[in-house]
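Duplicate of #3305? Posting structure anyway:
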């Protein structure tokens, strides 16, 4: 059994089908998959089971739930694999976050919200819990190492690269880059394949 963040995809070298459970985050392939764990298991049947919650041991929810239930599942038939299908364009369980902040480092100043093929997904944008500033978190949905640049507003003073606990680890240097539209203040960073990047943005007081 696996916990699906946004989709699971079945594809060969020509065509693929993405299955996007909107409100059933647990999936298993071939059988219901909740009785035992088999590390070397290879599914034999092309059947996908989706589960609302792991109720096998009755720990988080009652083992048996009565009543009628309705769940939503999105399907997307696409050419090639999940990268060619750009599946990150379809967030099934929450509204897409967009913000005029990110541009691809090698094709500035095109913004990610206008260029969905980049595959860097904005996952969170909120005030910092333990001090001033804003936390911004991104996830690489493509599975490829990439370089990016964050375009900063005029009120931004410092940008920090943080760990997953949102603790500042390294300050990113702000650089001025001139383009056809003028001068932008940018910070550059990289993201590992399927990695998460967390930034702390500080503003003028």
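Output from current build:
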């Amino acid at each position: 059994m696996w916990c699906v963040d946004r989709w699971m995809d079945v594809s060969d070298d020509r065509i693929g089908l993405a299955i996007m459970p909107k409100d059933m985050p647990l999936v298993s392939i071939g059988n219901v998959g909740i009785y035992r764990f088999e590390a070397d298991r290879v599914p034999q049947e092309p059947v996908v089971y989706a589960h609302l919650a792991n109720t096998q041991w009755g720990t988080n929810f009652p083992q048996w739930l009565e009543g009628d239930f309705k769940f939503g599942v999105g399907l997307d038939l696409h050419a090639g694999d999940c990268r060619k299908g750009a599946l990150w364009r379809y967030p099934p369980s929450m509204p897409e976050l967009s913000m005029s902040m990110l541009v691809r480092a090698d094709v500035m100043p095109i913004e990610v919200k206008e260029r969905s093929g980049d595959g860097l997904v904005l996952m969170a944008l909120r005030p910092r819990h333990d001090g001033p500033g804003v936390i911004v978190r991104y996830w690489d949905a493509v599975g490829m190492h990439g370089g990016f640049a964050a375009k900063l507003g005029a009120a931004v003073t410092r940008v920090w690269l943080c760990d997953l606990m949102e603790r500042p680890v390294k300050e990113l240097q702000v650089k001025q880059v001139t383009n056809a539209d003028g001068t932008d203040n940018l910070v550059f960073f990289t993201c590992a394949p399927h990695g998460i990047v967390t930034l702390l943005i500080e503003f003028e007081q």
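Confirmed duplicate; merging threads. The longest strand covers residues 182-191. The CA atoms of residues 35 and 184 lie 56 Å apart.
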